[in-house]
Amino acid sequence: MPKTTTKKASAARLSNKPIPMRLDEESRLLVRRAAMMSGVTVSQFMRQHVLEAARRTVEAQQVIRLSLEAAENFAAALSGPATPNERLTELFRRHRGIPPRRAGEGS
């Protein structure tokens, strides 16, 4: 016989740690109305929309979106030869025991 999931069983799987939220009366009524129009409870409505917003926020911080031109420039920079900047060159000189260059000296 297939198992049926009751509201009580579904709720038991959810955390018992609520996240309190204060809303003014107008906002509370708007959320309640939207939940009723969606055919879900206020808790379900808020959980769904808070999680969607949280996912979008996390994705926006973790994913870098580039235009085609920027992506091509990035790929070209990665595939071209690396050219060390002055600080890196100086670091290698010190590591190898080569005295640092004085201002105005050539390569």
From TrEMBL:
UniProt cross-references to Pfam families, sorted A to Z: TacA1
Cited InterPro entries: Ribbon_hlx_hlx, TacA_1-like
Keyword set, alphabetical order: Toxin-antitoxin system
Biological process terms in GO annotation: regulation of DNA-templated transcription
Transmembrane segments: none
Family as reported in the entry's similarity comment: Belongs to the TacA antitoxin family.
Name the UniProt record assigns to this protein: DUF1778 domain-containing protein
Species this chain originates from: Calidithermus roseus
The organism's taxonomic lineage, starting at the top: Bacteria, Thermotogati, Deinococcota, Deinococci, Thermales
